[in-house]
Design brief:
Radius of gyration: 17 Å
Strand order of the largest sheet: 1-2-3-4-6-5
Structural class: alpha/beta
CATH topology: Transcription Regulator spoIIAA
Number of helices: 4
Shape: globular
Mean pLDDT: 91
Distance between the termini: 18 Å
CATH class: Alpha Beta
Largest sheet: 6 strands, mixed
Length: 197
């Protein structure tokens, strides 16, 4: 984790973190005490200083591949959304709340995605749900919002049925989201092999 922080500290823009399924929140919190985590138990927080509001929602369950929103997390999200029903809002979480092409990945998504859909239905200013976890790109309509699944900078899985038989070592990729003239623009950036260490 300290190596990760050393690499991230080379960035010339601010960075914000949350837990994925391989992470340990107490460790993350101890290495990154400057992160704006709002709760001692969960890695969620709100960023209100930008032209858009960003809510980072913790879907992590320790030592599990799937994610879930417990009652405390649902209450936290509901309270944050009630604070502002007008400012364009993006919600970021690790686990995607939709089914995807490979059935095995639909068993390790956000288990109660319908609860998330119900919560955001009262907030038309929620413009998108932005996730990872799948290691592949994907997009869908989720209620009235976009659900965007970012590809990964880590290898993706090669599947045969419901078994992982290898890793796909193609170019790492990530997503860039921009807010331009009141609209969101998202794109995928693939990292050329000459740029990889």
């Amino acid at each position: 984790m300290n190596t990760t922080k050393a690499l991230l500290n080379h960035l010339t823009v601010p960075y914000y973190l949350t837990c994925g399924n391989h992470d340990d929140f107490p460790n993350l919190r101890s290495v990154f005490p400057e992160q704006p985590f709002m709760d001692p138990q969960f890695s969620h927080y709100a960023l209100d200083h930008l032209p858009v509001r960003i809510l980072v929602l913790d879907s992590h369950i320790p030592k599990k591949d799937y994610g879930i929103l417990c009652e405390e997390r649902k209450q936290w999200l509901t309270a944050r959304l009630e604070e502002d029903r007008k400012k364009p809002t993006m919600i970021f979480l690790h686990h995607f709340p939709i089914d995807v092409q490979e059935p095995i990945f639909s068993t390790i998504n956000l288990r109660n995605g319908n609860d998330l859909k119900q919560i955001i239905s009262a907030s038309p200013n929620v413009r998108g749900i932005y996730c990872g976890h799948y290691h592949h790109a994907g997009a869908s309509v989720f209620g009235r919002a976009l659900c965007w699944i970012s590809p990964s900078t880590a290898p993706s899985h090669i599947l045969e049925g419901d078994k992982c038989i290898g890793l796909n070592l193609t170019y790492p990729a990530y997503s860039v989201h921009e807010f331009i003239n009141g609209n969101f623009m998202s794109q995928i950036v693939s990292v050329a092999p000459t740029l990889c260490p």
